[in-house]
Amino acid sequence: MVNLTTRVNRANLVCKLCPSHRTIDPSARELSMFKEELNKAIQTDPLTHLDPPQKELIWKFRSYCSTIPEALPKLLCCLDWANLDDVSGTVLYLI
């Protein structure tokens, strides 16, 4: 069985990169591949620390996560607050 880190890394190779180096536009097919793991990470206790692969997965599918109110604490945890492009982009998701 392939672990989550390997699956995320493979999916990142397939993704279409957007202008920001951390911004990835995943396809609906990719979302269906990772939806179970993504929902599992979202449903964990908000005070639980996420592993780096989980953070990467939530950040990658942030447009999907922005539609789920329970995902907001996890999404904000994955945000690189030092990157102004990421912060301003996330604010747009929340408006």
Brief rundown of the structure:
By secondary structure, the protein is mostly helical. It has helices spanning 4-14, 28-43, 52-60, 62-65, 72-78, 84-94, and strands spanning 16-17, 24-25.
Report the biggest beta sheet as strand number plus sense, adding barrel if it closes.
2 strands, antiparallel
| Amino- and carboxy-terminal Cα gap | 39 Å
**Rg (CA only):** 13 Å
Q: Strand fraction band?
A: under 5%
Q: Report the uncertain regions.
A: 10-23
Q: Quick one: CATH class?
A: Mainly Alpha
Number of strands: 2
Work out the helicity level: 55-70%
By CATH, the architecture is named: Alpha Horseshoe
Class based on secondary structure composition and strand pairing: mainly alpha
Any idea what the shape is? globular
